[in-house]
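mind reviewing both lines:
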Amino acid sequence: MSGPTPPEPVEALLAKGLEGRGSPRLAGVVRLLRRLDAADRSAYRVVAELNTPWLDEPLRRASDFANFSKPWLLVAGGLAAFGGARGRRAALTGVAAIGVTSLLVNQPMKLAARRRPRRIELGVPESRWVGMPSSASFPSGHSASAAAFCVATSAVVPGLRWPLRVSAAVVAFSRVYTGVHYPGDVLVGASVGAGLGRASSTLASRLGHR
């Protein structure tokens, strides 16, 4: 398909910034970033070309519903109302994890030069589209918040681990499926969120023991 060159995944932007600095070690890093860039583009196109129209509406709705962490706040509200002391602790830990993750991911980690994918040039069917956010693309805030809440909450209530993992995975995949993120954005967001969720649950556990 002809048209303007699509914006590059973050790996390519990093590779461009490191090129020409003369260090053999950096040259190896650049080659690795180029490979990751190619994989990121290929994975985005594979998802865009999926012939799954029956998924368009459910995943579009899931992506929209996850704005402002609504699913996780609703789960937290249910835990706080009906889960007893343990549920309230899980809810507080999960919401705290979302707060820390949102602050970090949506502020200092957002790369101003990282534009969103151009869905038209990259072949994402319009039936999947959600509103394209105006913020930078890398990393995915939706994926980060979902993973943070999942890890932090299930550390307190292990029985929620798989339902929350599946829900978080659906939200993360929906961000690629609807065309608003490259897979690399989602993977990094989810990894950062999971790490911050683990840190939040560990801190909450230590404070609780005191």
Notes: The CA atoms of residues 24 and 94 lie 44 Å apart. Residues 1-7 have pLDDT under 50 and may be disordered.
